[in-house]
Amino acid sequence: MSQSRPLVYVIEDESDIAELIRYNLVSEGFDVQTFNTGENGLIAIQNQTPDLVLLDIMLPGVDGIEACRRIKSSKDHQKIPIIMVSAKGEEADIVRGLEYGADDYISKPFSPKVLTARAKSVLRRINMKDDAEDGLIEFEGFYLHPGRHELKINAELIELTNSEFQILYFLAKRPGWVFTRAQIVDAIHGENYAVTDRSIDFQMVGLRKKLGSRGDLIETVRGVGYRFKEV
Question: I need a surface site. Which of 17, 36, 102, 212 has the fewest CB within 10 A?
């Protein structure tokens, strides 16, 4: 997020609803600006990028669907998360908004607590995606992408179980560091998870097999545990 207090643009033509949203978000630690037309909201986005947009579907002039399309088709603004705000009976419009890239929706009448919870949830998801992008590990034909949960070796997609992927990523983030089997279990499953050292050894055997010619990236440190080879 761009600042300690997330900036939210509320694009809503009904002033009482806009004020209700603004009041509840401000009380939860958000900075909020309201706009009563799609045009005004889009102009504001050009001047300052918000962390989140709450966008009513039924707006005069440029409606919410068109505003969503314009935001998500803009290279500079397509990553701005959008929550569509709809009235009952607008299911088809909600689907269109989601197809254009909206991240969530909420229907009127809504609970202010539910609305703020949805806003926080969307921002958490976006931040997790950003963190995952930063965590990409790539070198010499080895491509490990946590956000996509994807491993490629020389452009070939390697199928891993969730546990195998988590173990590989945990080790690869810190090449050269040695981890005990217990540390690996705690990092992947949490403390006090009932997995034996022998189970970790079996998983390492399977993981090395799937890595094929790059299986030597996982090194056994006798009497200690495992590490990802420094390259």
Answer: 212
Residues of the chain within CATH 3.40.50.2300 domain(s) are: 7-134
Please say whether the structural domain 137-228 has been given the CATH code 1.10.10.10: yes
Fold observed for domain 7-134? Rossmann fold (3.40.50)
pTM over 0.70: no
> What are the tokens at 108?
């009127």
pLDDT in tens, the chain (231 residues): 444 789 999 999 999 999 999 999 999 999 999 999 999 999 999 999 999 999 999 999 999 999 999 999 888 898 899 999 988 666 788 788 888 888 888 888 888 888 898 898 888 777 656 655 567 899 999 999 988 889 999 999 999 888 889 899 999 988 889 999 888 888 776 554 445 567 788 889 999 999 999 999 999 999 899 999 987
Cis peptide before 109 (omega within 30 of 0): yes
